[in-house]
Amino acid sequence: MKFPALKTIFYVEDDPNIQNLVRMSLEDIGGFEVTVCSSGYEALEMIKNHNPDLFLLDFMMPEMDGVELLKKLRKINKEAERPAIFLTTEVHSQDVLEYSQLDILGVIAKPFDPISLPEIIKSLWRNHHLRSF
């Protein structure tokens, strides 16, 4: 079954150490092109110049959490209604319910294995597209 290739990821994370770890994992191991933003507000500005295949968003950030950011990204234009994955340190049942209402591909818990991260994202991408067929 043929579905779109995952090439570009728009990643928003406020912790510089996690940013670097994820970027190296996704670029060096996964072969993805990654745009990194440090805050929701930076992401809202930068998305105007990017057309990524996937949003990868930290859930817990100061000023604007991942859910609020995703809703705003998707309001910018129809092009922004693309798949999203959340990275989070805490997953509660209430959060999972809210996530499911956002039509996201999944949630990846922190801490995660940086070696496995690209394959986890590819798997979520494949499963999303297989459900669409």
Provide a quick synopsis of the model:
With about 130 residues, this protein is an alpha/beta fold. The chain contains five helices and five strands, in the order E-H-E-H-E-H-E-H-E-H.
Q: At the third CATH level, what is the topology name? A: Rossmann fold
Mean pLDDT: 88
* CATH architecture assignment name: 3-Layer(aba) Sandwich
- The helix count comes to 5
**Element pattern in H and E:** EHEHEHEHEH
Principal-axis shape equals: globular
Gyration radius, rounded: 14 Å
Q: Largest beta sheet, briefly?
A: 5 strands, parallel
Strand order of the largest sheet: 2-1-3-4-5
Helix content: 40-55%
Strand content: 15-25%
The CA-CA distance between the termini, in Å, is 9 Å
Total domain modules: 1
CATH superfamily: Response regulator
| Alpha-beta classification | alpha/beta
Top-tier CATH class: Alpha Beta
